[in-house]
Automatic annotation (TrEMBL):
InterPro entries per record: Cation/H_exchanger_TM, Na+/solute_symporter_sf, NAD(P)-bd_dom_sf, RCK_N
Source organism of this protein record: Roseicella frigidaeris
Family membership noted in the UniProt record: Belongs to the monovalent cation:proton antiporter 2 (CPA2) transporter (TC 2.A.37) family.
Protein name as it appears in the record: Sodium:proton antiporter
Parts of the chain that traverse the membrane: 54-76, 88-111, 117-138, 150-173, 179-201, 221-237, 275-295, 301-322
Length: 577
């Protein structure tokens, strides 16, 4: 009798448990990653029953981390930081420093860590999860507002600090023998060599190579090319420059993100990234040893307090010091007050490098579990505190103090009141030309690479990618658009795009191309659809109009017949009068 190999059993059970417990966590209004961590505990070596292959899961987890950082690199834009840099840059650096100091003191007291190891342990407790924070802001309806912009800028700075921390880990592990300054210098030179190689060779070479696949008729070749670019660059960085596998993937994402291939590359990589990221959280959960938590409960509680005070509390106070309104500061701090993926990555990597003892994993995991679990309570607590401060005399005096002390929040630049044209085929090209003739702002989203290049050659703002993928459509800023024109030949894709547009902006009006009577009826029932057009019917009506006029039917009667036919009613007998 044939039995499944242990590798296959581990993979299937890990994914199945991640799905089931992730769904349960979502039902409890917790992030799915909380369920993924629980799945890892269930199949881990410290729980009874089936024990998964830890080495296999760890290998797949490393791929997941690389794809996770590849996605961060794809979305990393200096312009995201520029809009709120006066608040986010100093605030995030100071907040991370405060949390790292508190966490370092905890690590030194609990594990007797040296300066380098204590710094890495503190950084693991000082960097928020971008996934959790953005989801919390989105559920609160604040992701597109000022609070969301500040939080996103803050997270960008934290992500950059996390990437630098990956460089610090091997440097800090050598610091015990070489000295911290010499170790950091060596790591910086290796990183500089890799960065120069990537920028001089990869900046043009990588996008050019993927552009060749993008122009090919086979979409799966481009998808495969994106994954090979991410993991291939990561592997080369690890083998040639002794840079971490994950950091190499980040650089690959950053290079592609600067090109117009970035949006579609993010959409293609996202499904695989989510699967492997789930396996990463499962592998982290497998490391959790309940006995270690029971052996050092004070360290676990201390780590949780470092996260709540060093991230949430420090962020709140720093935003108030920058004269950000208390309600907005509370929303940002409430979303940031947790840790997850980068904290796990730093801790696991530092343990593998021999910098941190294996026991250091338990308090970091406890802090992650606890901070995510109490996040709804901490959000409500910050909101209540913000309301109280906003009505106090002390805040009034501080907010109206002499100018020049705090930071002013600049307005976020971007598209507004524009039209989004989905599809630049025979229909879309005519619509785009009409809008451009009248000087109206229009953004074209086109899935065919050659058609997108034609639109760009006409001077149109063009995004290449499949608009039915949220990562691509988001680049067209549907939340600030006035009109969406869906000139797509695929009815299913058009419905999917319409759902995404409505989710981003319920007020937007849409003009949609339909393909049959049933599709017309469905589209016309949508509140946001201002016009639904079926191409074949309009061609027939145009011919009817010409024929009736040529045969002597009066203009009013012709129009009445056309209107009735367009509405799907019998034309009846036109009376001449």
């Amino acid at each position: 009798m044939h039995s499944a190999p242990p590798m296959l059993a581990t993979l299937v059970l890990a994914l199945a448990l991640a799905l089931g417990l992730g769904s349960l966590a979502r039902w409890l209004r917790l992030p799915p990653l909380f369920g993924y961590l629980l799945a890892g505990i269930v199949i881990g070596p410290h729980s009874p029953g089936f024990v998964g292959d830890a080495a296999l899961t760890a290998t797949m987890a490393e791929v997941g981390v690389a794809l996770l950082l590849f996605g961060v690199g794809l979305h990393f834009r200096l312009r995201d930081l520029r809009a709120v840099w006066r608040v986010a840059l100093p605030g995030a650096v100071l907040q991370t420093g405060i949390a790292a100091l508190l966490g370092g003191l905890l690590g030194a007291a609990g594990f007797g860590l040296g300066p380098g190891a204590a710094l890495v342990f503190g950084l693991a407790l000082g960097i928020s999860s971008t996934v959790v924070a953005t989801r919390m802001l989105a559920e609160a309806g604040q992701i597109g507002g000022p609070a969301g912009q500040i939080a996103l800028g803050w997270l960008v700075v934290q992500d950059l600090l996390a990437v630098l921390a990956l460089v610090l880990v091997p440097a800090a592990s050598r610091a015990e023998t070489e000295g911290l300054a010499a170790a950091l210098l060596g790591a910086a030179l290796e990183l500089l060599g890799f960065a120069l190689c990537v920028l001089l060779i990869g900046r043009r070479g990588l996008p050019a190579l993927l552009l060749w696949f993008a122009r090919a008729p086979s979409r799966e070749l481009f998808t495969l090319g994106v994954i090979v670019a991410a993991l291939g660059t990561a592997y080369a960085a690890s083998e040639l420059f002794h840079v971490s596998f994950a950091l190499g993937a980040f650089f690959a994402g950053m290079l592609l993100g600067e090109s117009d291939l970035g949006h579609q590359a993010a959409a293609e990589a996202m499904p695989l990234q989510r699967v492997f990221a789930a396996l990463f959280f499962v592998s982290v959960g497998m490391l959790l040893e309940p006995a270690a938590l029971l052996a050092a409960p004070l360290l676990s509680v201390g780590a949780l307090l470092v996260v709540l005070l060093g991230i949430g509390g420090a962020s709140f106070l720093l935003l108030l010091a920058a004269r950000i309104p208390p309600g907005m500061a509370a929303a940002v701090a409430g979303a940031l007050g947790q840790i997850a993926e980068f904290s796990f990555l730093l801790t696991s990597y530092a343990i593998a490098q021999g910098l941190l003892p294996p026991e250091a994993n338990a308090p970091v995991l406890a802090a992650a579990f606890g901070s995510i679990l109490v996040l709804p309570l901490s959000q409500r607590g910050f909101a209540a505190l913000g309301e109280r401060i906003a009505g106090s005399a002390a805040w009034y005096r501080w907010d109206h103090a002499r100018p020049g002390i705090g930071f002013a929040l600049p307005e976020v630049e971007g598209l507004a009141d524009h039209a989004i044209l989905i599809g630049y085929g025979r229909v879309g090209a005519v619509v785009a030309e009409a809008l451009r003739c009248h000087g109206l702002a229009v953004v074209v989203v086109e899935a065919d690479r050659l058609a997108a290049e034609r639109a760009k050659a006409r001077g149109l703002d063009t995004i290449w990618g499949d608009a039915s993928r949220a990562e691509v459509l988001r680049a067209a800023r549907p939340e600030t658009a006035r009109l969406a024109v869906l000139a797509l030949p695929d009815a299913a894709a058009a419905r999917r795009v319409l759902q995404l547009v409505r989710a981003a902006n319920p007020e937007v009006l849409a003009a949609v191309r339909a393909h049959d009577d049933a599709e017309m009826a469905l589209l016309q029932a949508e509140d946001c659809v201002g016009l639904a057009v079926m191409g074949e019917r309009e061609i027939a009506l145009g011919i009817c109009d010409f024929a009736l006029r040529r045969l002597g039917v009066e203009v009013d009667a012709v129009q009445a017949t056309i209107d009735r036919l367009r509405a799907g009613l019998p034309a009846g007998t036109a009376a001449s009068g």
